[in-house]
Amino acid sequence: MANTQSIKIRLFQRKLYTLSKQDKDRRFYSLYDKVYRNDILLEAYYQCKTNRGKPGIDGITFKNIEEQGLTSWIENVSQVLKNRTYVPSPVKRVYIPKPDGGERPLGIPTIRDRVIQTACKIVVEPIFEAQFSDNSYGYRPKRRAADAVKMIKTSINQGFVHVLDADLSGYFDNIPHDRLLDKIARRISDTSILALMRKFLRAPVAEISRNGKTSIKRSEKGTPQGGVISPLFANLYLNDFALLINTRTPCRMISYADDFVIMHKKAFTPEQLTWFKEMVESEGLNLNEKKTCVEDMSKQLAEIDFLGFNFKQVPCFWKKGRWYLKVQPSKKSQKKFRDKIRTIVKHRTSKTMEELIAEINPVIKGWKNYFAQCGYPKQVFFKMDWFVVGRFYGWAKRLSQRNSKCLTPDAWEILKKNGLEFFVVTKTAPVKGKV
Fold first, then answer.
1. What are 33-51's pLDDT values in tens digits?
2. Counting beta carbons within 10 angstroms of the beta carbon of residue 164, is it exposed (0 to 12), middle (13 to 18) or buried (19 or more)?
3. What is residue 107's predicted lDDT score, i.e. its pLDDT?
4. Which of 293, 366, 382 is nearest to 145 (CA)?
5. How many Å apart are CA 64 and CA 67, to the nearest integer?
6. What pLDDT, on the 0 to 100 scale, is given for residue 408?
7. Strand ranges in 244-393 using DSSP code E only, listed in sequence order
8. pLDDT at residue 429, rounded to an integer
9. Nearest CA among 281, 272, 226 for reference residue 253
10. Half-sphere exposure of 175 (CA within 13 A, CB side)
11. pLDDT value of residue 433
């Protein structure tokens, strides 16, 4: 039954996508009643549950909901939407550390708000998906970061060697609400849907201080990172700028949410760079001057970083005088991985080898699955393997007064037999470096 409902929803989304694709000026009416359909709310619930996530400000978990009765909970949410009495709960704000030492704000809506946002996204996403730039890859169905990386590599090889690597200052936190709603209203005329989206955007933010006090602030602009529908809003708001670059200039813009590069076969003139900046500012956004740079990728050893990957012109070892574009994990990504391993395999810890391996393996698998999708990561993988082995060497040395043999081929086999994941299966000598 559930599978039949999912197929029915997919067919409904396909119909909306096709209508939007066929007529770029078409406006959609009567969508709100689809949002509170029980089958769509149930599908939204299971999507949210699959993504897991921590509870919001009310502390209610998926387990709590199912213990009280999922069917009645879905019916209650449907009734609240149908009666138009829905009011979003405050978004719980937490801060996660950034690699550069700062903190990134993350918003955690309640499960009820997440489900309603997901139901709204199920209904409206196909309409906008049909109009998004082909070179936009962030948080879109059947698109991955690896696709954006491959497109950049292809573009450079096609001659788009002049790259403006842009960074927007606090993009998610600075999207103007009224301008975003105006962009949505171009395609959707259902005032109830627009009112619902306005509620999502203007949901208050709750911050819990260190002494346990909760302060609630109104949301004047931005869409919280962590909200289910926020990535769709982010893609939608930047889409006009992306289409302008890709259809009305000889440049190519490749984006992943708020990260993007603008590529050109010719060197950028000062006038072009000024125009790009003015177009961004006309959208109510700002470029981060410190992180925005221009690079000529036709030059030897020229390089840029994007989505954790490094693109660099390096000499061919098989043909003298020739250079090629090498794509591999960036130094920043490698440092982040090593720091993560250091926090797990500490030289002084009471954990056993089995416990450490169980904690490390998901980190290695995730890193490998991401970076193995494209480029030439094998050399970096080799170094990361021996870094992990080196951490176990330090850990083992603390356990015994005798010299540890953890870096010998025998120790490699011991770690392997105990279930440690490796990027590259090899027994060659370790790479020197700090562990």
1. 999 999 999 999 999 999 8
2. buried
3. 87
4. 366
5. 5
6. 57
7. 252-256, 259-264, 293-296, 303-306, 309-315, 323-329
8. 44
9. 272
10. 26
11. 43
Q: Which of 119, 178, 153 is nearest to 304 (CA)?
A: 153
CA distance 398 to 162: 51
pLDDT tens digits for range 142-171: 999 999 999 999 999 999 999 999 989 889
307: alpha, beta or left, given left = phi > 0 and alpha = psi -120 to 50? left
At position 178, the amino acid (one-letter code) is: D
H or E stretch covering 164: strand 162-167
Burial of 220 (0-12, 13-18, 19+ CB in 10 A): exposed
C-alpha 196/C-alpha 116 separation (Å) is: 9
Token duo for residue 181: 């709603």
Residues 347, 394: Cα–Cα separation, whole Å = 6
What's the residue count for the chain? Answer: 435
Do residues 358 and 395 touch, judged by C-beta distance below 8 A? no
pLDDT (0 to 100) of residue 346: 85
Pick from 288, 289, 327, 326: nearest CA to 308: 327
Asked if 234 and 175 touch (Cβ cutoff 8 Å), the reply is: yes
Q: Half-sphere exposure of 157 toward its Cβ, with a 13 Å CA cutoff?
A: 12
State the distance between the two ends of the chain, measured CA to CA, in whole angstroms.
53
Tokens matching residue 158: 């096609």
Residue entry with tokens 């039949």: 4
CB 235 within 8 A of CB 136: yes
Distance (Å) of CA 129 to CA 28, 36, 132, 252, 295: 14, 21, 5, 19, 31
3-state DSSP call for residue 166? strand
Tell me the C-alpha distance between 331 and 253, whole Å: 24
Cα separation, 240 vs 120, whole angstroms: 22
Q: Which of 355, 354, 380, 358 is nearest to 367 (CA)?
A: 380
Which residues in the chain show pLDDT less than 50? Answer: 1, 429-435
